[in-house]
Amino acid sequence: MKRSSPINFLPGPVAIHPAVREALARPAVSHRGAEFMAEVESIRRALCRMTGAPHVEMLLGSGTLANETVAAQLSRLPGRGLILVNGEFGSRLVGQAERWKLPFRALAAEWGEPLPLPELRRAVAADPEVRWIWAVHCETSTGVLNDLDGLVEIAEARGIALCLDGISSIGNVPVDLSRVQWATGVSGKGLASFPGLALVFHAAPIEPNPDLPQYLDLGSYAQSGSVPFTTSTNLVSALAASLARFTRRDGFAERRELAAWARPRLEGLGFTVMAPPEIAAPMVLTLVPPRGADALALGERLEEEGIWLSYRSGYLVERNLIQICLMGEHHLGELEELLAVLAARLGKSAARPTVAPHVGAAASLPAAG
C-alpha cells in the first residue's frame, strides 16, 4: 500500500528538509532589491568556501544550461580539447560539444570503469594543440566517482584548462575546485534544495563577451552580481536555507555511512553494484538486479508502494539498471524499509551483509527524524 509520504531515493528532485520547503514558500521579492542581492552574494561566498573556487555565478536553469555556458567559454579558446567519457553524462558533454562545433577528441572507457587517465596523459603529451580537458566528476549513470586529483595533475603539467561537470558531486562529497578553470553544479542534487538554479564556478575574473548568446554569457552574470536577468527569489531563498543547514551538519559523512551500510545488504539480496568500491561515489548506487529480475518492473512495484528509485531513464532501461541515490535528506530507517520491500518483492529474507560494512554499527548512523 502506498505511503502517504513517499520515500525519495531519486537523483533529482531530491528529498528536501521542511525548512527548505518553507523558505521556497515565502513571498517573492524584487530580484533588484538590496536585501535579495545581499542574499545572493552570501550564497556565492558560501559556495566558494565549500568548493575552494574563487568565483561562482547562478543562472536560472538546469545543469544542462550550466554545461552550455562552459561550452560557450570553450568556443572562445584556441586549439582543441579532450572530453572524457565513462557513462551517460560524459556522452552528453560530447553531444553538447558537437552542437557548439568545438574541435575535440573523445577518450572513452566502459561503463563502470574509471576514466582513462593513462590514455589522457598520452594524448595530452602527443598533441601540443590541446588547450582544454572536459570531464564528469561523479558519473551519475554508473555511480563512479572519477579521479579529480589525477585530472588536475595532467592539466597542470601542460598548463591547459580543466573543465568539470560537478553536478552530482558538489554537496555530496568534498570537492576542491581551486585548480579547475570552469565547473558546474546545481541547486537540486547534493545541495539538497529544489531544482532550477544552475551554478558555474570559474577560476579567473571574467568579462562580458558580445559574441556569445546573451543568456549564456558568463561575464554578464559576473558583472551584475550574478543577477543580470529576472530570477526566482524563491529558489534562491530555498538554496540559502539548505546551505545554512549544510554548515551545521556533516552531510558528507552521513551519505558515506548510509551507502556503506546499504551496499553489502543489497549485495546480500543478489544485486550487483556497478561501481567497484574503490571508485564508488557514496551517494549513487547503480544496481544490476539479481538474475531474472527486471529493473523497470521492480521500480514500478516499489513506486506503487511509495518508494521512489531511479529506473525510468532510457539509459537505465536499456541496460536493466536501477538506482538508489542518497543526495538529499535521508536516514537509516528509510533504507531499512527499502531493503525489507526489496526482499519481499524478490522472495528473499532481508539478508545480513555478505561482507562487513565499512563503518561502525548501524546505531551510529543517522536515525529517523
Structure report:
The C terminus is likely disordered. The protein is of the alpha/beta class and 369 residues long. It starts with 6 loop residues before the first strand and ends in a 23-residue tail after the last helix. Helices cover 38% and strands 16% of the residues. Helix 4 links the parallel strand 3 and strand 4. Helix 2 crosses helix 8. It has a seven-stranded mixed sheet with strand order 2-10-9-8-5-3-4, with helices on both faces. It has a three-stranded antiparallel sheet with strand order 11-12-14. A two-stranded parallel sheet has the order 1-13. It folds into two domains: 123 residues, Aspartate Aminotransferase, domain 1 (Alpha-Beta Complex); 229 residues, Type I PLP-dependent aspartate aminotransferase-like (Major domain) (Aspartate Aminotransferase, domain 2, 3-Layer(aba) Sandwich). It is built from twelve helices and 14 strands.
